[in-house]
Amino acid sequence: MNRHRLAVTWFSTTLVVSLLAMLVPLPAVLQPFKPYWPALVLLYWSLESGERVNLGMAFLVGLFADLLDGVLLGEQAMRLTALVFIALRFRSRLRFFPMWQQTLAVLALLLNDRVLLLIVRVFAGEASPPVSWWFSPFVGAALWPFLFLLLDDLRIRLRIA
Hints:
The chain is an all-alpha fold. The protein has one domain (3-157). It is built from 7 helices and no strands. α1 (3-23) packs parallel to α3, α2 (37-48) crosses α7 (135-157) and α3 (55-69) runs antiparallel to α4 (75-89).
């Protein structure tokens, strides 16, 4: 298998696994702690391989996530597009942050994602979410260094640019 095909396969596999991880059911007690996996994986690829991820790709991944999750069509597409836009806009700075600063930036991006989701759901007529609804971005930010190092190590081992 040539390098380009391996790179595309690895990229696609990580996105599919993130979409499937989003669907894993958790007990009601743990549900607020479930990170937004597609956002974390798209953030990784936005930072490490900006030419591979663009706004159209984020929108398509979001549409697939909407269809799989059964939420309002376009909800996650809009959120992921906004997240990738911000990540690509500040990519040159974020890539060279120390890990603790990068984790704080990821936390800010995930909190921004939650605010967008709150706005969409309020306009859709849903009730305000409980306080535990805000735990997910913090869990995602706590997992970011481990996810980043895991994906980076596998990318380097496979010699994917």
